[in-house]
């Protein structure tokens, strides 16, 4: 039996895909779908979020984005939902906008760079941007449309995954995995905390433990994963202000706005190296509000419905750790940093045995001393 | 019997003072201490908040501030608290700071004006301000110390009032007063909503109804009271950042910071004419954060523990309506706008029969058509 530690979007997706293959699986999490996946905006935007140094991450993202429509359709069917639109999966693209001459030049370079990677995007004037998104600030001077980029509501995805697991009879143990059980050099299960209680066993034995505990992974095994704090805000609008994702760089920090069909507008996100700190701070909230106003002045009138901080699992090279750990009995599916939602379908495929260059890029073997 | 409609700081104070005098009193409110009194910062700062056109309001405020120490001491004793410090009543004064030359000149004028009113204040240089409050922004160029101004925690005050009412056996009816009962030209009680239920009577008969329903008063009688929305924020600090109240004008809007002994820092408040709208908005929150950062940059690191909007009961001349309404059986204690906490002791004295110039200033008779 596989035991998956961690009930975020990655762990839940894995449990669901393993169960679909008929493999026995148990998932352990004291509060599934309450961490980074609950905070996340759900951008599936590998192209518009690319940076020059991260071509491998771009390739992983593009490969996983291609898997999303089928993943969503199968998940919706398995969860008993009418269709993938119940997950708010949308593909109107991301519009990356610029205010200053410097930023415009950077968009030109980025467009040329993406063309060379055979990922065509469309350069737009400020007027063309506002034709697409009339609520954009008049000061927007140009943009880049990544027409293939998509987004989804992560809360609907994790709710659907929990429903699908339930329908397939997967055991969900609502407890904390306190430590890995080891026998010689082999991982043989997990010890639960608190032990026993509620008729629960104190230990779960497993042929394989898959560590999908996100930012908390380093508490269970020697993995190079650290928490990267993100503060994110949800606004409520009577009708949607935007028809697609909009991102831009304001005062040197990137900000994005993700519109939902029901009028919710997600504004994210800070990136802070603060350890296990999930406080919403005056400074973080100030930056989100300031930058969102700069992009779309009309947000001023919207209600602030939620502000939350989550912890992304960062790795030294910003690539996830997926596959056998090197320690017998222990596999990894962690370190997804900002890409947990985007990379969930690909992660499951790799854990289910997909090989090749993409799997190799994510191999934990690239780091030493994992155990 | 008196029936008081409204369980904010004004209605609760009245009920307590009437009960202390041995008069039978019942208070009606579906959710006492949950409206403007719950949102309020609790500044007792008539001097630093003065504006040139509002000398009557200044005089009311100064008179009520003088009553606060005795009010707090008696309330604490009656509520079974160890002493008035349990209400966080503090009197270190308010520091009004200025950034620009214009603002400095305005402080000079204000100081001269207050001297003429025999309310001496102290003009300080920027350096003197920072000596008093080291966390102030380096850009603060001068200030005005109103040494007599005080502040209190309104939530502790209303909790103490509820405890004191309970100890004195005052009946608290947790229902909404739907309308006033009238017999000919006379008010004879209130009709409760929903009627009956929980063994509650559908009506309460009264010799006198005292309307203390704040922003909701105009729903029960013809009084010139309107809601003035205020958004206010609470930050949490490991230790207090300030030792006294600090206020200033940033980008043309006044902002104040009120420190509590436990490290809480209250930042307020917007003033918006939005009707009965209690949404926390992106624009309101943005202004509070921006202005607080401008005054005290260190707030950036603090946790945002609460954001709430309340509705102040505004009147055409910014003075409260206290006393007989002109309609037999109906008295008023409403329209306190930004001064409910400050003016609560004076309001009770006037309703208990204090006469003279202060009572005359608050007389509802100054407006026509109250009924």
Description:
Chains A, B: Pathway: Cofactor biosynthesis; thiamine diphosphate biosynthesis. Chains A, B: Residues 3-351 form the FAD dependent oxidoreductase domain. Chains A, B: Keywords: Oxidoreductase, Thiamine biosynthesis. Chains A, B: It holds the Pfam family DAO. Chains A, B: One of its GO terms (cellular component) is cytoplasm. Two copies of one chain form a homodimer. The first copy, chain A, is an alpha/beta fold and 371 residues long. Chain A folds into two domains: 2-76 and 154-225 and 316-366, FAD/NAD(P)-binding domain; 92-149 and 226-314, D-Amino Acid Oxidase, Chain A, domain 2 (2-Layer Sandwich). Chain A has nine helices and 19 strands. In chain A, the strands form four sheets. The first copy, chain A, has an eight-stranded mixed β-sheet. In chain A, a hairpin with a 5-residue loop joins strand 18 and strand 19. In chain A, helix 3 crosses helix 6. The longest helix of chain A has 25 residues, at 55-79. The radius of gyration of chain A is 21 Å and the shape is globular. The two termini of chain A are 20 Å apart. The relative contact order of chain A is 0.19. The mean pLDDT of chain A is 95. Chains A and B meet through helix 7 and strand 17 of A and helix 7 and strand 17 of B.
């Amino acid at each position: 039996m596989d035991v998956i530690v961690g009930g975020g979007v990655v762990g839940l997706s894995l449990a669901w895909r393993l169960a679909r293959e008929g493999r026995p699986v148990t998932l352990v999490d004291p509060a599934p779908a309450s961490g980074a996946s609950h905070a996340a905006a759900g951008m599936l935007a590998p192209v518009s979020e690319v940076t020059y140094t991260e071509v491998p991450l771009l390739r992983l993202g593009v490969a996983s984005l291609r898997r999303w429509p089928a993943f969503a359709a199968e998940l919706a069917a398995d969860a008993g939902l009418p269709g993938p639109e119940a997950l708010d999966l949308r593909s109107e693209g991301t519009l990356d906008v610029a205010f200053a001459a410097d930023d415009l030049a950077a968009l030109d370079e980025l467009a040329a760079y993406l063309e060379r990677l055979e990922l065509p995007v469309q350069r737009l004037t400020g007027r063309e941007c506002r034709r697409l998104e009339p609520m954009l600030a008049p000061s927007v001077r140009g943009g880049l449309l990544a027409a293939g980029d998509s987004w989804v509501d992560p809360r609907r995805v994790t709710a659907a995954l929990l429903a699908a697991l339930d329908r397939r009879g997967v055991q969900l143990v609502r407890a904390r995995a306190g430590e890995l059980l080891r026998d010689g050099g082999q991982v043989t299960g997990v010890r639960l905390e608190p032990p026993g209680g509620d008729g629960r066993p104190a230990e779960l034995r497993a042929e394989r433990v898959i560590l999908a505990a996100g930012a908390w992974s380093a508490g269970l095994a020697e993995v190079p994963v650290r928490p990267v704090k993100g503060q994110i805000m949800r606004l409520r609008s009577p009708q949607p202000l935007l028809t697609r994702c909009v991102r831009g760089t304001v005062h040197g920090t990137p900000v994005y706005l993700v519109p939902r069909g029901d009028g919710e507008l997600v504004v994210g996100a800070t990136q802070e190296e603060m350890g296990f700190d999930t406080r919403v701070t005056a400074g973080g909230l100030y930056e989100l509000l300031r930058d969102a106003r700069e992009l779309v002045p009309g947000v001023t009138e919207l209600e602030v419905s939620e502000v939350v901080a989550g912890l992304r699992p960062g790795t030294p090279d910003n690539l996830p750790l997926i596959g056998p750990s090197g320690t017998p009995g222990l596999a990894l599916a962690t370190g997804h940093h900002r890409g947990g939602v985007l990379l969930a379908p690909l992660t499951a495929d790799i854990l289910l045995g997909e090989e090749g260059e993409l799997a190799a890029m994510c191999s934990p073997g690239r780091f030493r001393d994992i155990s």
